[in-house]
């Protein structure tokens, strides 16, 4: 729990502004009453996690600190169990997101990169498939060219499109052994396909995920939403600050938010830079870009 050379304790000290002194299996916490109480709660949470999974990662330390400082309003067991790992929410927003995935047939996950929108959706899908609650897992992305031209990439259509779908394959391999991923792909139980391949289909008893949805057109988004069949779940993730559509073309994700807001059975969960669970530097990068965007918009508004 302490980590090599007490590195985990040093992380808690740095973030919470406390001093942790160890003697054997005892930790003495020094600091303000509030900080000391938070540090104690973090240590309790980390001890329970270490007992459950047998090891701790840096991300687990940061997650425990976040969850202690801002306890989620959602109660209950939100841990997703897959063949390779058990996945628990690491921020209060992730808890809200997992509760929505459990409750609603259509969920939108919105926000910056690194917040776990797609990863948690894939984890939920794999968990439901392993429990027999859905028959198929379908992962899709729009193959939008962000500066490159698909036609000039080498290979056949599959080889041209697969690089766009690589993040979805990576998430699958994180949760299932490689041979099982390949077996399920071959059997059609798992399908990873570009958005264009969804046209004309009705997806029943399936868990369907559309990633990078900010790069869909309004027509594509309507087409995708109307694929939802009996016994199916649908998750749509995207970041409206990273649209790669041609200038002047409205994002289908923006349209969906405007049209479906307030509809029963549909959840919208918005992540912020506080929910970034990648390297700490990613959080700072996201905040820096957001600040730059706000500065540019303010400067444009001041121009006559």
TrEMBL record:
Its main location: cytoplasm. GO terms for molecular function: ATP binding. Residues 87-290 form the PhoH-like protein domain. InterPro entries: P-loop_NTPase (IPR027417), PhoH (IPR003714), PhoH2-like (IPR051451). It comes from the Bacteria. Keywords: ATP-binding, Cytoplasm, Nucleotide-binding. Belongs to the PhoH family. This is PhoH-like protein. The lineage of its organism: Bacteria, Pseudomonadati, Pseudomonadota, Alphaproteobacteria, Rhodospirillales.
């Amino acid at each position: 729990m302490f980590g090599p050379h007490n590195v985990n304790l040093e992380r808690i000290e740095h973030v919470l502004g406390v001093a942790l002194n160890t003697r054997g299996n005892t930790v003495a916490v020094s600091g303000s009453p509030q900080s000391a109480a938070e540090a104690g709660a973090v240590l309790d949470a980390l001890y329970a996690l270490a007992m459950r999974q047998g090891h701790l990662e840096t991300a687990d330390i940061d997650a425990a600190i976040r969850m202690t400082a801002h306890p989620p309003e959602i109660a209950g067991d939100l841990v997703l169990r897959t063949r390779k790992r058990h996945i628990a929410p690491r921020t209060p927003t992730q808890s809200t997101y997992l509760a929505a995935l459990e409750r609603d047939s259509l969920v939108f996950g919105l926000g910056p990169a690194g917040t776990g929108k797609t990863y948690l959706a894939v984890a939920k899908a794999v968990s439901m498939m392993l429990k027999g609650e859905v028959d198929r897992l379908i992962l899709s992305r729009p193959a939008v060219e962000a500066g490159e031209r698909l036609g000039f990439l080498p290979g056949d259509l599959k080889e041209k499109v697969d690089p766009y779908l690589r993040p979805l394959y990576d998430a699958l391999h994180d949760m299932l052994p490689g041979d099982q991923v390949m077996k399920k792909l071959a059997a059609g139980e798992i399908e990873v396909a570009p958005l264009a391949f969804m046209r004309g289909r009705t997806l029943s008893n399936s868990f369907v995920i559309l990633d990078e949805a900010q790069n869909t057109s309004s027509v594509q988004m309507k087409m995708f939403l109307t694929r939802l069949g009996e016994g199916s779940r649908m998750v749509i993730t995207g970041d409206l600050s990273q649209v790669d559509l041609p200038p002047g073309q409205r994002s289908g994700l923006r349209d969906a938010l405007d049209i479906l807001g307030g509809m029963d059975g549909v959840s919208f969960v918005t992540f912020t830079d506080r929910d970034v669970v990648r390297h700490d530097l990613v959080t700072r990068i996201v905040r820096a870009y957001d600040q730059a965007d706000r500065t540019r918009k303010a400067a444009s508004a001041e121009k006559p």
